[in-house]
């Protein structure tokens, strides 16, 4: 008997599973002047996200309660993400969220949409006294040391258990792992960067686009 082919989908969170960048919304609301310059350095590639988080930490002020109230007011999951996730699971496809954002808002939004069973990997926000917030990076890799959460390392750890790994993303932290995926769905910056380097990827606007493409390829039935 032929072995059953196993597929894994790794999906970015900010700008992908969530249609907005929740992390940036939090920085706009709970950080004083100065974070925009740090963000420019990150976007220009002068620093990685781990260094950016460390520089942002002294500027970031707020309680977990206040930040969660704000997140649940201004952010949500993509309206079709739950349908996409459940359809994948019905087809025996594993889906994991990989994010260079923060754990507490991902957890809150998954809970709000009754998707607590979704496995996710992210950086950790630590709420301290005097409204201070620090960051921990359990998914960091010392190979290059740039990202807080190394999505490529997650992909490679999963590789032995799967015949095919599909990646879905939109931004800077998705460029590196997308190079190692078997199939890439990309939009905005990831699409521009990945395709300009001569790599094949499929442009998408929303999760129905991905569902249709996976149907056409026989990945979903």
Describe this structure in words.
Helices cover 41% and strands 18% of the residues. With 221 residues, the chain is α/β, with parallel strands linked by helices. The protein has one domain: Rossmann fold. Helix 2 runs antiparallel to helix 3 (49-56). The two termini are 21 Å apart.
Please describe the topology of this protein.
Blueprint: E1 7-11, H1 22-30, H2 35-43, H3 49-56, H4 64-74, H5 81-90, E2 94-102, H6 103-112, E3 119-127, E4 133-136, H7 151-158, E5 164-169, H8 172-178, E6 183-186, H9 188-196, E7 202-203, H10 207-216
Parallel strand pairs: 1-2, 1-5, 2-3, 5-6, 6-7
Antiparallel strand pairs: 3-4
Helix pairs in contact: 1-4, 2-3, 4-6, 7-8, 8-9
Give the end-to-end Cα distance, rounded to a whole number of Å.
Answer: 21 Å
> Can you tell me the CATH topology?
Rossmann fold
At CATH's second level, what is the architecture? 3-Layer(aba) Sandwich
Domains, number:
1
Into which percentage range does the β-strand content fall?
15-25%
Overall geometric form: globular
Tally of DSSP β-strands: 7
Number of helices: 10
Largest sheet: number of strands, sense, barrel closure: 7 strands, mixed
Which CATH class? Alpha Beta
Biggest sheet, spatial arrangement of strands: 4-3-2-1-5-6-7
- Bin the helical content: 40-55%
The CATH superfamily is known as HAD superfamily/HAD-like
Low-confidence stretches: none
Q: Element order, helices and strands?
A: EHHHHHEHEEHEHEHEH
Task: Report Rg.
Answer: 17 Å
Mean pLDDT: 94
